[in-house]
Design goal:
The protein has helices at 7-25, 34-41, 45-61, 65-70, 79-91, 101-108, 114-120, 123-133, 139-164, 167-170, 182-199, 205-231, 233-236, 240-264, 268-287, 292-308, 323-351, 357-377, 388-399, 407-448, 455-463, 472-499, 502-507, 510-516, 518-555, 564-577, 584-617, 621-637. Helices cover 73% and strands 0% of the residues. The longest helix is centred in the middle third of the chain and has 42 residues, at 407-448. The chain is an all-alpha fold. It folds into 2 domains: 7-290, no CATH class; 308-660. Helix 17 (323-351) runs antiparallel to helix 18. The chain has 28 helices and no strands. The chain crosses the membrane at residues 361-383, 423-440, 472-493, 532-553, 586-614. One of its GO terms (cellular component) is membrane. Keywords: Membrane, Transmembrane, Transmembrane helix. This is Site-specific recombinase.
């Protein structure tokens, strides 16, 4: 048989792929079924036999292991190392062995967009095509393919076992490093299965089927261990490295299941279906293996999973389910608005100190950060602060709707409660910040004889609220982005606290025990366990808000932030600074501006949180579309529920996520 490297042997196969590729892009074939396209390319039996012969010649001479065990399976390299390698390979691709099936695969599907048409062709068309082309298989080819599959299965099992006993994994799964570990057990069973298949000529089908079923049991046990890590991440946290490891482990187990199924089944239709799925995975993997965009997308998904999926309890402070919770949230918002009124006054006084730009940014940041942390410690709330759990729970409903047939109504009601809670928080914050700031200025004027904000500063503060003549809207959007990022930071540090076991480390620290005493130290550690993430997020938010203007000034960019509560407080200061005399137009424009700023804060902060959560969950666009449609229908038919608590007939508390049932 001729070598696979002979260009005459692969010429016809290459032309065949090129014909399908060009047919896929042809405008005349836009609505033409792929079955017709395939039929039109292969008209007679001689062409089909020639195509089959050339494919046979490639398969009989190639090694499968690299393609079967590496394609579309995550790399163990770090983020920057992998990115650097991909960038280098783009300009100077690596050299692969010509005898590797992966190399022949790359040569055949050499257009980086080939995976579009390969995936667009329905599975049934590919199965029919394979069944029509490969009528007979030679015993030699069948033996060679079986051997390569067994080698690949053995490699996958060993790699899965290695990942399963990594210290990062062992520390999160009880007794995983024992001899009873399902990962080690899977490796043993696969080794026996491969050895018997290769060396025992009397290995009966019945015994082989029993061993295969036992391997599937071991694979399911391995998957249950991975599920255990996911489900209990609120107990011990999860790191980016651990997330990458378990994702890679899942890919090994999936590929191992596919190859075992392909080797074990005697149904031709089933074999062609598995081959079709593998073909689509391989073409996509090889076309995108050097893609930086794919690299960043995957790592972003891992990062968002690590941060957003943390089951933070802080979400309970931002959503209510009934009237009692609704008015409780309003009272908390009033408390937050009072503190913000104080922050507005203090920031304006700092403004008149005319500090150097660095120190101005520093003291602005500390003003915000300490104030936000104080609001959290006192149990108050600031409108638009969306914790990661809120968005994550909605995304979880979308991605797990198969387990909840009522997912659409449940998620819709959850969103309505969220919008309603945000509305009353906005009202509470904005309604109290204005009179508090105004009242403090009046007291200040009584004591010192002049206003906190002079006339020039007051006019400037009012001008910043004018959405028609200022950058209030983009500045509000920037503040919304900061609010979302602060939610991610909260989730990150709450997860880090749990993952690194800081509570136990603090409780057992000898120096701290001597200083505080064990009982007091235990209370401190427990408080930090429940609040450290939120405090870290609030501190970071203060730094973002306080430093943005200074950064913009340094770079010569019109950067600043607008938040509805601070906008209301600043308006109160300005109104007092102008001796309570402003025109009706300024009143109207300022109220419109404050409202628009609040709406933009909410839209951006929650929109970005949802986008990140959906990214981490791989939720489908069709689900999001259905949710938005149902939400719109509810708004037009039951609009008052978006603003005031009313009786909800559709969903009971038992169907809602536990964290969002009012307590």
């Amino acid at each position: 048989m001729s070598s696979v490297l002979d260009p005459n042997r692969i010429n016809y196969l290459g032309k065949f792929v090129e014909l399908i590729r060009s047919s896929f892009h042809a405008k005349t074939n836009k609505n033409k079924p792929f079955s017709e396209i395939l039929t039109s390319i292969l008209m007679d039996r001689r062409e089909k036999d020639l195509l089959a012969e050339q494919i046979y010649s490639i398969l009989i001479s190639a090694k499968f292991v690299s393609l079967l065990t590496e394609a579309e399976i995550g790399s163990t390299r770090g983020f920057f190392s992998d990115a650097s390698a991909r960038l280098g390979y783009k300009f100077l691709p690596p050299v692969h062995e010509e005898t590797e099936l992966r190399t022949q695969f790359d040569n055949l599907f050499n257009n980086k967009k080939d995976y579009f048409w390969v995936q667009a062709i329905p599975d049934e068309n590919w199965c029919s095509f394979f069944a029509d082309i490969f009528i007979e298989n030679s015993p030699t080819l069948k033996q060679h393919i079986e051997k390569e599959l067994l080698n690949s299965i053995l490699v996958l099992a060993q790699r899965a076992a290695n990942l399963g006993i990594e210290p990062e994994v062992i520390s999160k799964i009880p007794r995983v490093d024992d001899l009873d570990s399902p990962f080690l057990g899977l490796n043993r069973e696969v080794m026996l299965y491969v050895e018997k298949t290769l060396n025992q000529f009397d290995y009966k089908n019945e015994d082989r089927d029993n061993d295969y079923k036992h391997i599937l049991v071991m694979i399911n046990q391995c998957k249950s261990q991975v599920t255990y890590i996911y489900k209990h991440k609120d107990l011990f946290g999860i790191s980016l490295q651990l997330t990458a490891l378990i994702r890679q482990l899942e890919q090994y187990l999936k590929r191992l299941t596919q190859l075992l199924d392909l080797l074990q089944t005697n149904e031709k239709a089933r074999q062609w279906l598995i081959i079709t799925h593998l073909l689509k995975e391989f073409v996509y993997a090889e076309n995108t293996k050097y893609s930086l965009r794919k690299h960043f997308s995957i790592n972003l998904q891992l990062l968002t999973f690590k941060v957003i999926e943390n089951t933070s309890k802080t979400g309970e402070h931002y959503i209510s389910s009934d009237k009692a919770g609704y008015w409780k949230l309003f009272r908390r918002a009033l408390g937050g608005g009072v503190v913000v009124g104080l922050l507005c006054c203090n920031k304006t006084r700092l403004y008149f100190q005319h500090l150097p730009i660095f120190w101005e940014a520093f003291f602005y940041s500390m003003n915000y950060s300490i104030g936000f942390m104080l609001i959290h410690i006192l149990g108050f709330t600031i409108a638009t602060k969306q914790p990661a759990m809120t968005a994550s729970t909605i995304a979880a409903n979308l991605s797990n709707n198969g387990e909840n047939p009522n997912w659409l109504e449940t998620t819709t009601q959850l969103l309505i409660r969220l919008i309603r809670s945000q509305f009353i928080s906005l009202v509470g914050n904005a309604a109290i910040a204005f009179p508090v700031a105004y009242g403090l200025d009046r007291v200040y004027y009584y004591v010192y004889g002049y206003h906190i904000a002079d006339a020039a500063k007051a006019i400037k503060l009012i001008g910043e609220l004018n959405v028609w003549e200022s950058l209030a809207i983009p500045h509000a959007a920037l503040a919304g982005a900061y609010l979302m990022i602060s939610g991610l930071i909260s989730g990150y540090y709450e997860n880090k606290w749990i993952y690194d076991k800081y509570t136990l480390r603090i409780k057992s620290h000898p120096g701290l025990i001597r200083f505080f005493g064990q009982e007091k130290l235990n209370r401190i550690a427990l408080y930090l366990e429940h609040n450290f993430g939120a405090l870290a997020g609030n501190f970071a938010l203060g730094v973002f808000l306080g430093a943005t203007s200074a950064v913009g000034f340094t770079l010569g960019l019109p950067l600043d932030i607008r938040h509805i509560t601070f906008a209301s407080g600043n308006f109160g200061l300005a109104f007092a600074g102008l001796h309570s005399h402003i025109s009706t137009d300024l009143w109207i424009n300022s109220i419109i501006g404050i409202s628009c700023i609040g709406i933009m804060n909410v839209l951006v902060s929650f929109g970005l949180s949802i986008a990140f959560a959906l990214k981490s969950r791989n939720a489908k666009f069709s689900e999001v579309k259905s949710l938005l449609g149902n939400l719109s229908w509810q708004f037009f038919h039951h609009g008052s529920a978006f603003f005031f608590p009313i009786k909800e007939p559709a969903v009971g508390n038992d169907e809602l996520p536990e964290a969002f049932v009012n307590r």
